[in-house]
Design a protein that fits this description.
46% of the residues lie in helices and 12% in strands. By secondary structure, it is α/β, with parallel strands linked by helices. It folds into 2 domains: 16-227, no CATH class; 266-544, 3-Layer(aba) Sandwich (Rossmann fold). The protein starts with 13 loop residues before the first helix and ends in a 9-residue tail after the last helix. 44% of the residues are buried.
Length: 553
């Protein structure tokens, strides 16, 4: 007879003797494969997306404009990843202690997975010219459901794995923090759908959790597999990851806050005027439909606007947007000084369809940038009583190239242009671009001699550029300028100007040692920095002195 103090054990099923159920093992393997599949999808999106230094302000470019081949590949990869994720969560459900909570976690995770593929596949158009109204809510669903699912998983696990439960809860908190932080930074950078910027990093944390859950289902490591043994002291039955305590938690919070302030300080210092203008409602994002595409632009209206204000368009560089050039140029201050209106239009895809564009660079089928600017002039002349004789355009880099093109194609409407670090040339670098003026257009070109992106002497850097002197010579011919020139020296800059037909002027300011940048006066001027001057004020004063010429050219 068995000992009275011995409990007779029921034999385990054969399936358990031979190891874990096959479904649980398969779910564990799926969990390990999730980060691999996720990384492959991200790599595909990055390779096909419009990725650049301004991705934080245009996060929709991360998810790419896919042609039919890559769309099919992404769809297949997404389905495979979805199957892996659902298999993993199903395996976790089988091993959870609280089955009802686990079922809710499964449903929430399924919603997050479906919404994530909506983010990838709900592009507004094949070129990513517009902003998808469906993609934004899908991204919010991802950011809300992923941490919610992990919190529910932590609750469902119970005592089956305290370590995995703690890790799930901590990753959920990290997801919430990361989603808020990345979204706020993208919002402050002018993104129309800033939540898209947070999708990939939050999903990366989810992929890491999948690997941990896969290890747990496979029984590795021991700390993830087993609950604490009943015979251990109560202190050892607590979670494997101990809490930091009140004082340590407070100290960590202070360090985190100080770090966030330290990281944010340069951004706030540089962009403070632009951020304030948005908070006071003086900068607004407006939309205008041109052809079949909705185009957006930022418009800054000063507190005191002239009765018939001048209108200045400031164009961003390649892969940029209106917020970036508004903040970097500081042209809002000139609008305040003059009582004028400043407009910062958003290009599409890589920017502007300027001179020198080719099939793989700058050409945007269906998007007419010239018509966009012309339609915006029409609207603001109607809504803000803009002076039609004081419409101007300036821009940086690719925006400067578009500035030249607008001066040529809208010469009947634009009084003067001021390209900064730009160029005007055909695809092969010839200055003989199509340009027939209806009226003389005044020109002020600013360019640095150390510009390695668009060399002042011309040459090929990605695309082919013409020398600045050839560009200026072309405009002198277009505006019928006199042969005599006026030369002035201001610090590291040398300005040369020619008097032209109808009171117009063609001028160039060459900055000795200047870089590919928008020159800005710093709070602590340094003589060694040749770009330390206020280009926006210089340009604004040039515009003030050059209204639209009355006669035809």
């Amino acid at each position: 007879m068995p000992d009275a103090n011995t409990t007779e054990r029921t034999p385990e099923p054969a399936a358990r003797k031979s190891g874990r159920p096959r479904l649980v093992r398969a779910a564990g393997v799926a969990g390990l494969l999730v980060p691999v599949a996720w990384a492959a999808i991200v790599a595909l999106e990055l390779s096909q997306g419009q990725v650049s230094h301004s991705l934080v302000s245009r996060p929709e470019r991360l998810f790419g404009a896919l042609d039919s081949r890559w769309f099919a590949v992404l769809l297949a990869a997404g389905v495979a990843l979805l199957v892996l994720q659902l298999l993993l969560v199903g395996g976790v459900l089988l091993r959870a202690e609280r089955r009802r909570v686990a079922r809710v976690a499964f449903a929430v995770a399924a919603v997050a997975a479906a919404a994530r593929y909506g983010v990838s596949l709900l592009a507004p158009d094949p070129h990513l010219y517009g902003v998808s109204q469906a993609r934004g809510p899908a991204a919010l669903a991802v950011l809300a459901c992923l941490p919610a699912a992990l919190i529910l998983v932590a609750a469902a696990l119970g005592g089956r794995s305290r370590t995995l439960a703690w890790l799930s809860a901590l990753l959920a908190v990290a997801m919430v923090w990361m989603a808020a932080d990345w979204t706020i930074w993208s919002l402050r950078s002018g993104a129309l759908q800033p939540q898209l910027w947070a999708v990939e990093p939050v999903e990366g944390l989810a992929a890491a959790w999948c690997a941990l859950a896969g290890l747990w289902l496979l029984g590795l490591p021991e700390s993830l597999r087993s609950r604490p043994k009943p015979g251990l002291p109560p202190s050892l039955r607590l979670a494997v990851i101990p809490g930091p305590g009140r004082k340590a938690s407070f100290a960590l919070a202070v360090v985190a806050a100080a770090g966030l302030v330290g990281v944010s300080a340069p951004f706030l210092r540089d962009y403070e005027p632009t951020i304030v203008s948005q908070l006071t409602g003086r900068t607004q994002v407006e939309t205008i439909r041109v052809g079949d595409i909705d185009r957006t632009y930022r418009v800054y209206r000063p507190a005191q606007t002239a009765a018939h204000p001048g209108l200045v368009f400031v164009l961003h560089g390649v892969f940029g947007d209106g917020f970036i050039i508004e903040a970097n140029s500081g042209f809002d201050a000139q609008a305040d000084r003059l009582g004028w209106i400043a407009v910062y239009p958003d290009g599409v895809a890589d920017g502007w369809d300027a001179f020198g564009s080719g099939p793989t660079w700058g050409q945007h089928p269906g998007a007419d940038d010239v018509a966009f600017i012309s339609a915006t002039i029409d609207r603001l002349e109607a809504t803000d009583a803009v002076d039609p004789d004081r419409v101007y355009v300036t821009g940086l880099s690719r925006g400067a190239m578009m500035t030249y093109k607008l001066g040529c194609e809208l010469s009947d409407r634009i009084a003067a242009i001021a390209p900064v670090s730009g160029n005007m040339a055909t695809a092969d670098g010839s200055v003989d671009v199509p340009c027939n003026l209806d009226r003389p257009v005044s020109v002020l070109a600013i360019h640095g001699t150390a510009d390695g992106t668009i060399p002042i002497a011309g040459g090929t850097v990605g695309i082919t550029f013409s020398p600045l002197v050839d560009v200026i010579a072309r405009w002198r011919a277009l505006d019928s300028c006199a042969g005599a020139q006026t030369v002035t020296v201001d610090g590291a800059s040398t300005a040369t100007s020619w008097a032209c037909q109808g009171g117009s002027t063609v001028a160039m300011r060459v900055v000795d040692g200047g870089w590919h940048t928008w020159p800005v006066r710093s709070s602590s001027p340094t003589p060694s920095n040749p770009d330390d001057f206020d280009a926006s004020r210089l340009i604004a004063d040039f515009f003030v002195a050059h209204p639209r010429v009355a006669g035809g050219g």
